[in-house]
Each structure stands twice: as structure tokens, then as C-alpha cells.
Design goal:
heterodimer; A: about 260 residues; mainly alpha; 2 domains; two-stranded antiparallel sheet; about 5% strand; B: about 350 residues; Arp2/3 complex 21 kDa subunit ARPC3; 12 helices; about 65% helix; globular
Amino acid sequence: MEYALTADDLARVDGLLQRLDPRVKIVGLFSLIIAASLSRKLEIIGGIFLVALVLAILSRIPLLILAKRGWITALLFTGFIALPSIFITPGNVIYRLPLLDWAVTAQGLTSATFLIGRVETSVTLSLLLVLCTPWTTVLKALRVLCVPAVFIVILEMTYRYIFLLLQKSREMLEARQSRMVGELDSRQSRRLAVAGITVLLGKTFELSSEVYLAMLSRGFRGDVDTLDEFSMTGRDWAGILFLPGLAALAIYLGR
Amino acid sequence: MHIPDGYLSPATCAALYACAAPFWYLSLQRIKRMLHTRMVPMLSLFAAFSFVVMMFNLPLPGGTTGHAVGVGIASIVLGPWAAMLAISMALLIQAFFFGDGGIMALGANCFNIAVVGSLVASLVYRVIGGRSSLDSRRRLIAAALSGYAAINISALLTAIEFGIQPMLYRDAAGTPLYAPYPLGIAIPAMMIGHLTFAGIAEAIVSAGVVSYLQRSDLSLLKLTAPDAAASENGVDLVVPVNGWRSTRSLWIGLAALMIMTPLGLLATGAAWGEWGPEDFNNPEIRDQITRSSLNQAAPEMAPRGMQRLATVWTAPMPDYAPPFLRSETFGYIMSAMFGVGLIILSFLLIGRLMQRRQGT
């Protein structure tokens, strides 16, 4: 929830990406992710990462938030996975660890750098999209990626009810904790978690019926449509030319 | 198990989007037909539920913790089609909003976890649960195994996708460009964690939820097991559905297969390992045996054991050709009819015997 609140706050800041049409942001940032993924040269991936950093600074996104939300987790997770490849990948030995005598290969090191570089760049670009755009607008703009309207509506409702169900789960847990003395052992905690999930399942069914009736009472007949209130300005046209153009250049240079 | 962007090549991501797309389309059509106007709120709420379930941390035996994906329980309660859509939605929100799983890799994650996971979970639950009563222990075992199997098959697919990357995408110096480990490392590394912690978490949640529902609300288990008995005491036993209507398509398929049996005549030569003792004396067939056995020459004469046992039983219709029929094609069809008839008769007899035993 805290995450969502920060994202909403940042989306309201007057920055470069915040001023762009959400469709331009989706197409532009997505094309940069594809470019980072296609590139076979490390310097190109590094270049795209730098572009992402510049975009973050111009959009007034604190780098600390990017580090906390994406970089550190991605580095720890991917670093843990990539580390053994430095020694396992066959190739030219460039260094031997002093005590263990493990050989570091150039190919292994490059491969690990590729993996970490790609993951960090993609995570930064995806975070930029979410942090600079209100979530409901991101969903509506997914129409440009040919996502059907019915999915958009379902996703919007899903997002809304995630918070409600999270709140209900927390209330259930608090209700239980307020009636407990002492700590639960592992088995009891497991039973509590499973019971919580099942009660939540029951509540989900009930809620779905209530929401359905509420929708019917407001005239819902099964047809869904989304309001398309987007309009392109000169800045958006510049963005749609610049970001995918940059991605195309990166793809060309990174062959 | 959520694959981030950068681990898979764009071509693999595109291929897996293409693999998931028909399942999304099919499930959407099916759910729309079943639920109509109810679909939107139902799927939204269950996608939210799947998302929240993934956030429940579960203490596991041994002092560690894990979280379930919820694919087992979603498939058991909603069926595979609604489950695959709900979990796909939850994965999409995780990828876009929380950066958990990549945007390019979303197709791969949905295919592995939502599509294949839901289908495997439903299949295992249905096969093992059978027509047992909704409150039986067998359903608990079925639920645990369905969650366990689903999560492990999904993990195996993920490992295979990782493992093929270094085979397909390397630069000139041999540097792997995406996930760096070959299948021999990716599969064990992925499976150890899933066969133990993640699999156990999923099994505990699936069986635990089914156990809770057995005591509190059996109707939720009835949705995907309409032909199960409601209780072990014999209350609310389900009346068998009309035999012909429910199996009509199977009978039509069987008839079509019987008519097509003469297609086997198009193949020349003897099937490998199905030789008769007389084939060893036929130079033409001996030549075929040698060619189809990696140029290993066949013995000069049929092995003695084979010769001795070949005469123990003489088939009434040797080579699917009843002696009283001239036409080979018609002989094949007659043999198919005779064989299928015998099998059906045997099952009818077994069914009758079992009914009689239940009656006493």
C-alpha cells in the first residue's frame, strides 16, 4: 500500500515523463527494454541504462527510490544467480582466486555482466513507467499493446480489490493477534495462514456476488468499454519519435 | 520462479507469448460463455485473491518460510480456465506494478505458471480425486499432489527455458548472452528448491484450504467436481449423467478410429521387435531387421526360446486377418470391431461384478 501511495505521489510531480502521454511512455519505454534485451554489446546496454537514469532525473524520480525498489533487489537476486557462472562458464582464464584456485573466465565475467546489466536496465525502465504514471492510466494505455478492453476493466477492478483483500487479510490477522497470548509455533502459524487464505477465499466469493449485483443495479449488461481521454500534444509526438528512435538506434548499434 | 527481463532472449519471450495467447483466448471464450455478465467481477476478485495469496508467508517444516503461488487452490475451486486467467492477471499486475517478473518475460511467466500450472493442477486433482466424495481424505491427497505437481512442472519449464538460452544464444567468443547455465545445471538448480520448499508450500496451502472447505463450505469444492458425492455417508450421491449423451463424442471418435485401422496397411515391413520366428528365415525381412537395428545382423535362425514360446498360443485371427475373409481391409476393420467389442464386454462384466459387490 505504501508502495502504491509513493507511486501515486511521484506520478503527480511535474517532470519530463509525467508530462508525456501514457501511450507514448508505454511504447517508448517498452521499445528501450526490447533494445536492451536484443543488444549483444555491453556498452549499448550501459548506454540505455544511462538514458534511463537521465529520464529519471529529468522526471524528478529520486534515485534512492529506484535503488530501493529495483536496483538492490535485482542486484542481490541476479548477482546470486550470475556469480557461479563467472567460474563455471568455459573460456579464457583471466584470474585465479588466491586460496580456492577457482578460475575466473573472461566469457563467464562478460556473461554475468550481460545478465546483471540487462536486468538492471529493464527494471529501471519498468519502474520509470509505473512511477511516472497513475496506475489506472497505465492500464488504459495498455490498449495500444492490443490488450482487449475487457482485460483492462478486469485489471482495473483487480487492482482496486487487491487493496481491499489486503486490508481484510490484515484485519483478520490483527483480530487473531489481539486475542492471543504468547507466540505461535511453526505448525500453528501454518494453520493460521491456511485458515486465513480459506476465509479470504470465502470472502472473495461473497464480495464477487455483491459487486456483481452492484454492477447490475447500475445498468451493467456485460459490455465493457474504457474512456479514451488521451490526446497527443507536440511534446508527445516528439517523445514517440525520440524514444523508439533511440531504441532502434541501440538495436542497430548493438547487433 | 517469476522470470525477470534479461534472462530470456526476445525470441524466446515472443514464442512463449505466442504459446500462451491461444490459451488466454480459449479460456476467455469459455468463461464468457459460462459466466456472461458475472465474468468481470468474478475474474477481478479472483485475480486479486491470487495476488494476495502470493503474499501469505508460510512457515515451513525445518524453520524456513515460503509462499504459495495459489495455482493449486485456484484450479481446484475455479477450474483450469478461470484459474489461468485469474493468475495471468495477478502476474501482469506483479510485473507492471511491482517489477516482480519482467514485462517481456510476462508471456513466459504466464505460460509456465498460469497456463501449464492450472492445467496440470486440474488434471492431477481430477485424476486422483476421481469421483470420491467431497469430504474424503482422497481429495486432500489429490489437492496436495495437484499443487505440488503444478508448481514443479512450472519450475521445470522455467528451467528448460533458462537451460536452452546458452545453447541458442552465444557471441563469437562463446559468451552466453542471456541465462548462462546449460540444462544440466539449470534443471537441478531450479528443481531442488521447488521439489522441497516451494512444492511443499503449495501442497500445504492446497490441501489445507481443501481440508478447511471440507469442514466449512463444501459447495466451493463442488464447482469443479460436480459428479462427486457430497459426503462419505452416502448423502447427496450424484445421479449418473445420461450415458449416451455424455460419451457420444467418445463413441464417434472410436468408430472413426476403427474405420481408419486399414491405414496400418500402408506401412511396409515388420514393426521393430514384433518379428515372428519365420521372419528370421526370410532374407528380405532379415535385411530390414539389420537396417533398422543400427546394422546389427539378425541371428541366423530364430532364437530357440522364441521358437518354443511362439507355439504356446495361436491367435484366432493371426495378423488381423480372419481366415474366412478375402479382403485385407475388411479383415482389419472386422478385427478392430472384434477387439473393441471384447474390451467393452470385459469392462461391462467388471462393472457388473463391482456393482454386485457394492450391493452386498
